[in-house]
Write a sequence for this structure.
């Protein structure tokens, strides 16, 4: 067992340092590049924070959907094969819901401010209301 | 061997050669000043400089192949791009005036010099800034009109541009996607849908801009001032250009304005038809929007392999992680009927 703080906590501290303290010291061009880098660190932190639970949920859904076990890579490869072959589509029970859950989980890590993601969340909240 | 070092010229040190062209860039051109790199990626460099003339200076833009020489495999080539801009100008499309196409003996590399059209190209500013509040409601129609004029350019004048049918293009991107070796069930769904709903080869193929979107348009408070970045032009279905500008990635946060984050599809189509474009095939335009979301997604996903091989830059890593943006766009287009 490694000691504390966790990698996610360390990355969070580095990106906060970059934005609050390092950025103002830089030239405009370097500021732009450094902001991109700090955003990348925050993405990595979100991945470390969110992926364990989301990956487990995705694996569970895929196992149920495909009726077989395997790694995430195996099962996503098999689902891809079935869709490409026309053996599964949006009318397959559970498929649309699985793809929505998986896609929204990716966006929560990759680009939580992306307009298409915000719109999808709002549209789905509207449907449930 | 040591003496050879003195003869090694920095590939970017083309300023003296460009300066020698001053008389060709303007009748009373004397010299150039203030050469600075603006931006440019893998396929192009963009520089601005001032042409010093009798009684004043004139700002000009140089588009140049990287290092003066490297030519992208997908782009049409800068000499062809210059000819396309001249043809667009003749067709009534707002474009920057081409001033001079570089010749080999000029020693500046491949490229051309054009006039500077003042305005804004940053998509985020165009969809949000109060400076463009009056322009935004007219922009979709203006884009439709410009596209109709682009599509009047005679493809026969450009025999070397790629000719592609919709189904060929889907196959091509599918091959690129499969080569990435990473499973993406949402892309599989998109490819199935694109195959199943593919429009037939266009009855009258047109010269298509290929990258007509917010970000490649020079916008002023008065509206569309210039159509830029002609390097992906080809000959094909004119509906492609009407779909691409609606892809959510080019709405820069304003997802409720389908045309570039500033306008409505109905205004784009009305402008297109009023300016002489063929009647808009709504279903085909929608198909091209789905195609566009897939195309951008495959381009982003390819960045992961590039990051691990040729270019381990932060920028490339971050773009690779934007692939999921296209996945949520495709889900909204295909699985919720949202447009």
């Amino acid at each position: 067992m490694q000691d504390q703080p966790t990698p996610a906590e360390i990355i969070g501290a580095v990106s906060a340092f970059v934005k609050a303290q390092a950025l103002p010291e830089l030239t405009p061009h370097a500021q732009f590049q450094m902001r991109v880098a700090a955003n990348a660190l925050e993405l990595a932190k979100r991945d470390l924070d969110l992926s364990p639970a989301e990956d487990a949920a995705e694996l569970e859904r895929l196992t149920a959907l495909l009726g077989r076990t395997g790694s995430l890579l195996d099962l996503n490869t098999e689902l891809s094969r079935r869709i490409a072959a026309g053996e599964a589509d949006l009318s397959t029970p559970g498929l649309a819901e699985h793809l929505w859950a998986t896609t929204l989980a990716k966006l929560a890590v990759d680009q939580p401010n992306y307009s298409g993601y915000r719109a999808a969340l709002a549209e789905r909240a509207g449907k449930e209301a | 061997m040591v003496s050879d070092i003195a003869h090694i010229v920095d590939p970017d040190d083309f300023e003296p050669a460009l300066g020698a062209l001053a008389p060709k860039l303007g009748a009373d051109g004397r010299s150039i000043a203030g050469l600075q790199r603006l931006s440019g990626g893998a396929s192009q460099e963009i520089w601005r400089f001032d042409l010093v003339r009798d009684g004043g200076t004139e700002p000009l833009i140089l588009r140049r192949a990287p290092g003066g020489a490297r030519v992208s495999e997908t782009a049409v080539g800068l000499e062809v791009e210059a000819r396309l801009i001249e043809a667009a100008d003749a067709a009534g499309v707002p474009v920057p005036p081409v001033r001079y196409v570089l010749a080999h003996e000029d020693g500046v590399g491949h490229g051309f010099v054009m006039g500077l059209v003042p305005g804004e190209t940053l998509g985020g500013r165009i969809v949000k800034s109060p400076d463009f509040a009056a322009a935004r409601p007219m922009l979709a129609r203006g884009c439709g009109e410009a596209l109709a004029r682009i599509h009047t350019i005679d493809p026969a004048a450009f025999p070397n541009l790629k000719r592609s049918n919709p189904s060929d293009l889907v196959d091509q991107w599918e091959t690129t996607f499969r080569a990435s070796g990473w499973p993406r069930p949402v892309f599989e769904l998109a490819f199935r849908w694109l195959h199943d709903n593919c429009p037939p080869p266009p009855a009258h193929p047109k010269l298509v801009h290929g990258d007509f979107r917010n970000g490649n348009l020079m916008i002023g408070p008065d509206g569309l001032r210039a159509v830029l970045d002609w390097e992906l032009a080809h000959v094909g279905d004119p509906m492609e250009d009407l779909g691409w500008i609606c892809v959510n990635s080019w709405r820069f946060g304003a997802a409720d304005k389908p045309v570039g984050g500033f306008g409505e599809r109905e205004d784009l189509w009305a402008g297109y038809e009023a300016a002489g474009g063929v009647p808009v095939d709504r279903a085909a335009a929608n198909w091209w929007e789905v195609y566009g979301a897939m195309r951008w997604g495959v381009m982003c996903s390819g960045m992961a392999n590039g990051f691990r091989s040729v270019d381990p830059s932060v920028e490339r890593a971050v773009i690779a992680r934007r692939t999921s943006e296209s996945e949520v766009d495709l889900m909204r287009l295909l699985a919720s009927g949202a447009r």
Q: What stands out?
A: Strands of chain B lie at 29-39, 45-53, 56-64, 98-101, 111-115, 206-208, 217-220, 223-227, 234-236.
